[in-house]
Amino acid sequence: MRNNIVARLGAVLIGICLAFGAGLAPAAAQEELRIGFIAPTTGPFAQVGADMLNGFNMYLEKVNSDFGGAKVKLIVEDSQAKPDLAVTKARKLILEDHVQMFVGGVLASEGYALAPVSTELKTVYISSIAAADDLTQRQLGNYPLFIRTGWTSSQPNHPYGQWACDQGYKKVVAIAADYAFGYEQVGGFQKAFEDCGGKIIQKIWPPLGTKDFGPYIPTIKADADAVFSLMVGPMALQFPKQIRDSGYTKPILGGGTSYDEAALPFMGDEAIGDFSALQYSAALQTPENEAFVKAFRAKYGKVPSYFSESNYTTAMMIEDVMKQTHGKWPGAGEFIAKMAALKVNAVRGPVSFDEMRNPVQNIYIKKVEKTKLFGYDKPELWNIVIKTYPNVGQFWTYGKDTFLKQPVYSRDFPPCKYCE
Amino acid sequence: MTNTRPKVIAVVVALAAVALIVPHTNSFVILLATRALVFSILVMSLDLLLGFTGLASLGQAAYLGVGAYLTAILATRYHFGLGYDFWLVVLLGMLAGAALAAIFGLFAIRASGVYFLMITLALGQCVWGLAYRWNSLTGGDNGINVSRRPNFFGIDLANRIAFFYLVLFFFSASLLLMYIFVRSPFGRSLVGIRERELRMKILGYNTWLHKYIAFVIAGAFGGLAGVLWIYTAGIVSPDNVVLTTSVDALLMAVLGGAGTLIGGAIGAGVVIFIREYLSTLVHWWQYVLGGVYVLVILYLPGGLMSIPERIRQWQTAQSKSSVTEALAPVRN
After folding, report:
1. Higher-confidence residue: B262 or A43?
2. Testing the interface with A: which of B28, B136, B285 to mutate, by most A Cβ within 10 A?
3. Contact A1/B31, CB-based, under 8 Å?
4. What is the mean pLDDT of each run of 10 residues along chain B (332 residues)?
């Protein structure tokens, strides 16, 4: 009995040790750039994770994994979209795989969890998707090795609020997923919309992952001119269907992820005519984007979403820095400085960085239409760009100092002054 | 009563082996071993209820959450618990877990079977709801980051190996305390309640009080797991308090073998190894995890801890059948 257990445990432990011993790789001769990539490859966000990874890989294949002379080794780790697992995997990437940087994280909570790891272990963290506002706003000082290539949640919603006001909408009801990402999207929209004279008359917060909107849709106030919706993942598919089935005919203004191309191909005609705002649309009529969409679709069988574009562009930016240094790793601090000084023509349009290391980029107001595009023979749903706001930063027109004086957007900020 | 000394020695030897071998592996394994040990404390606390008292609780993550949030809030807001006062925080965390269990127990202990399961589920989700919604205190969905670890006796716990040993110490102490607890007359009467509550009542035991005390003690160890969790993971978010964490703990306890204490630790180790280590090597790790669950439930209802028992049964059966075979011609 005793011998049995001891022998077993011993065998297992020795096995583990051997497995690790065998895993040690010999030092590479060529200059190697080791990049960790943290994305959910299993669980409810697996589709988003695949979109992210496909974007990054597509760029790597385009340049044959050669960044200015450095051979790129991409090490992918599954975060399952759980913040504490993302942290564990980030530590593994840094301590065991000795990556020079790690890219990724989907949810705001993952971003907030990963940024401190970059500070603690002195490794570059590039957030290509995680959009939590404060990472590049009030908390940036804590994260000297952090840079963002995606967006802040409120960034597209400031011009969006202005646009909604310009369209003549006076009263809008907001319905948004009940977590930080939802608060920041609604907050940005509300701030700009109300500054221009509009009124948010009601805020509804269904929990993240809601699939049945039956209890929420009937409560939407009848005197609203439009609905602002922020849906994530499977919610995005259900909401338009259910609200239109209920007979609601007024315009829907979707937040960033409500109609993006991760969800749009799976929607029905009920989505036609709905609006959204983001820094990317697959229907962007530029030669760069047309080529990108066609190549991506040929390779992965679907239209690229912003998740793919953002990671494709991130890879491109990393290459730009490595080209400047002729493939030599400049050190974490220097890398961040060089990257923040980049000005690139990305697929999404021109991108540069503000002083708080967040992209300054075009924001597109988009409308879902069923049409033929880029020579594809079947009519499909596309996010047709109807207005472009060029060079939008995270502080919109407010200026950094004024903006940072207000608290981060939350469930209670801005307060709902016109809610009855 | 069977002689338990060989089992105790086996556990001590295994712990010594872990203490000696793990620090010589790489830092990722040290990190995972630390995580597994912390989670094991939670699973063992659940085993007090599940294996020894016969109460399947689906809310054990709530105590982990209370301990972790308490520690995180004290550390980030008041810079409390980062020095010698860490030990005070350990005590506070255990008290908080026990206090929460004392409140929840008033509701839950009245029920049994599937009703107990549902009440603990609901109460656990209340804690999740608070963690998710009470933004000003808990940071909502984003959770709370604690980037520093305590530092005392000249030992900086930011050192992975020092921290691993601290967690191993707490794990061993918890195992010892829980072992003494279940071996005490009080613990034996819990087993009596598990087997047949009515008989225990007739014998004059206050079974409600027995179950209630077991529930509170389990809560205290859950709180301890929470205190250690926040310094292991560096972050606590509603994700750690949600139902799936409780279900994980329950599955780990069953996988290792309910009613064995150490089985919970083995279950936690196996699951964490597959989910967090194997997932770095292969992308089909979920099939392995699912396969392990299915195989154990089908063929080892007593969990992984029943393997030696099974082998012995099999060996006796073999020798018996060979004896009968040998005797068969004689009988004819």
Report:
1. B262
2. B28
3. no
4. 76 90 89 93 94 90 94 90 89 96 92 89 92 86 86 82 93 94 92 89 90 94 95 89 90 90 92 89 88 88 85 84 62 46
Q: Which of B13, B29, B143 sits opposite A83 (nearest CB)?
A: B143
Question: In b/e form, how buried is each residue of B173-209, taking b as 16+ CB within 10 angstroms?
Answer: ebbeebbebbeeeebebbebbbeebeebeeeebebee
The predicted-structure confidence for A131-143, as pLDDT tens digits, reads as follows 999 999 999 999 9
CA dihedral (A352, A357, A358, A360) in degrees, to 10, reads -20
Q: Is A22 on the interface with B (CB under 8 A)?
A: no
Q: How far from chain centre, in Å, is Cα B97?
A: 14
- A165-203: pLDDT as tens digits: 999 999 999 999 988 899 999 999 999 999 999 999 999
Which carries the bigger pLDDT value, residue B81 or residue A329?
A329
Is A403 a residue whose pLDDT tops 80? Answer: yes
Percentage of the residues of chain A whose pLDDT score is greater than 70: 93
Count contacts between A and B (CB, < 8 Å).
113
- Using the Cβ of A120 and the Cβ atoms of chain B, whether some distance falls under 8 Å is answered with yes
pLDDT digits (tens, 9 = 90+) for B159-173: 889 999 999 999 999
Cβ–Cβ of B276/A85 closer than 8 Å? yes
A42 touches chain B (CB under 8 A): yes
Query: Are the CB atoms for A308 and A273 separated by under 8 Å?
Result: no
The closest alpha carbon to A310, from A68, A129, A148, belongs to A129
| Selection from A236, A267, A238, A241 nearest residue A254 by Cα | A236
- B318-322's contacts with Cβ under 8 Å and 24+ in sequence apart are none
Q: Which residues of A touch B13 (CB under 8 A)?
A: 2, 6, 9
Compare CB distances from B145 to A1, A17, A112 and report the shortest one's residue. Answer: A112
- Specify whether the backbone of B118 is left (phi greater than 0), alpha (psi in -120 to 50) or beta: alpha
The pLDDT, as a whole number, for residue A15 is 46
Distance (Å, whole) CA B200 – CA B86: 41
Contact at CB, B32 and A88, closer than 8 angstroms: yes
Measure CB to CB from residue B145 to each of A89, A107, A113 and give the nearest one: A113
Which of A2, A98, A99, A146 is the mutation pick for testing B, counting most B CBs within 10 A?
A2
The encoded tokens of residue A153 equal 């949640």
Q: Report phi then psi at A349, rounded to 5.
A: 125, -175
Q: How far is CA B166 from CA A270, B58, B117, B263, B310, in A?
A: 58, 28, 33, 21, 35
Note the pLDDT of residue B327.
Answer: 59
**A412 pLDDT tier (thresholds 50, 70, 90):** confident
